[in-house]
Design brief:
five-stranded mixed β-sheet; 6 helices
């Protein structure tokens, strides 16, 4: 890896101003105008008046801290399985191998949609039972996380209605059984520690864009999240995203970018540690397993053809098309 200083390649803008979307605003078209501008500007925005109580959010963070404070031996009892549920130790994830010396300085715990193996979705990938810490060790932990998970999913579906209007679609375009009726949605608890040093390839979380449709992020208020609005402009400009009391941070994912033919883009982001412990709870929303992600009809024309290859797989039948793609998870 080249030992260039970060200043040779990157400039930092201290704080970015993001648009606030009021989810309690009855004028959804007004909200859609604001959301559209936010998506074109940075792909990041805040949502307020979302209906998640501060008490529930605080309890989720408190329970998260209790888990990460356990001895490593106890956390390893719920080590992440082949279904990507459970605990991931420090340095487990390497998101930016070109610039990172080693894996992220964070540990995590993933919770997903829980469907029994005998249920209607039991045979679908990423719909398997969760792994839970011992209730004797962390009483009430599972109940808190399940409740918070459902609330985060509800908020994401509310945002999807405004997103549909911003893309000139029917308000409930995404909220159908085949799209978000049975979504693949993962909630991850993160604990960051240490001090980042980009000149040495040390990051709390390396630069990346999220895979799915959108991400809903709650943080504990400790500064660290940065975004790069235009990854192709050199030197890259990184802006800090501050926490806003009572608000959640939302960002777009790669899948939505492909869905709308690159009109709204997913945004590069990373986390720099400042020596403080930092906790966050992102909720990653992806459509239902059987949803076909193809270019939205109003996002293409004779002069703007679909840009992304589509892959469809049904049982043992496979075919390719220049216009459609079956969603896949990072594995």
């Amino acid at each position: 890896m080249e030992n260039k200083t970060e200043e040779d390649k990157v400039s930092i803008i201290k704080v970015s101003a993001l648009t606030c979307i009021d989810l309690d605003n009855s004028n959804l078209h007004q909200s859609a105008v604001l959301l559209k501008q936010a998506c074109l500007d940075s792909g990041f925005f805040y949502v307020i008046n979302h209906g998640i109580s501060e008490e529930l959010k605080d309890e989720a963070f408190e329970q998260s801290k209790k888990f990460f404070a356990l001895p490593l031996e106890e956390k390893m009892k719920v080590l992440r399985n082949e279904k990507y549920r459970g605990y991931a130790p420090f340095h487990d994830s390497l998101l930016d191998p070109k610039n990172q010396f080693r894996g992220d300085y964070k540990e995590g715990f993933t919770i997903g949609f829980e469907g029994g193996k005998d249920g209607p979705h039991g045979d679908k990938p990423f719909h398997s039972p969760n792994i839970w810490p011992n209730s004797d060790v962390l009483p009430g932990w599972r109940e808190t996380m399940e409740k918070y998970y459902q609330e985060a999913l509800r908020v994401c579906k509310s945002i999807a209605r405004i997103m549909a209007l911003a893309l000139d679609l029917d308000v409930d375009y995404f909220n159908t059984p085949e799209m978000l009726g049975n979504p693949i949605a993962d909630m991850v608890l993160f604990h960051y520690e240490g001090k980042s040093d980009p000149s040495k390839g040390i990051y709390a979380c390396g630069a990346h864009s999220d895979f799915g449709m959108m991400s809903l992020l709650a943080t504990d208020g400790v500064m660290g999240l940065q975004i790069c609005k235009d990854k192709d402009v050199m030197p890259q400009k990184w802006e800090y995203i501050p926490s806003l009391k009572g608000a959640y941070i939302v960002n777009l994912g790669d899948l939505l970018e492909r869905w709308n033919n690159g009109y709204f883009k997913s945004t590069l982001h990373r986390v720099l540690g400042n020596g403080q412990d930092r906790y966050s709870i992102p909720f990653f929303l992806k459509p239902s397993h059987d949803c076909i992600i193809e270019c939205l009809p109003n996002c293409q024309s004779e002069n703007n053809l679909p840009k992304y290859i589509i892959y469809i797989q049904r049982s043992n039948v496979q075919r390719t098309s220049p216009h459609v793609t079956k969603q896949h998870m990072h594995t």
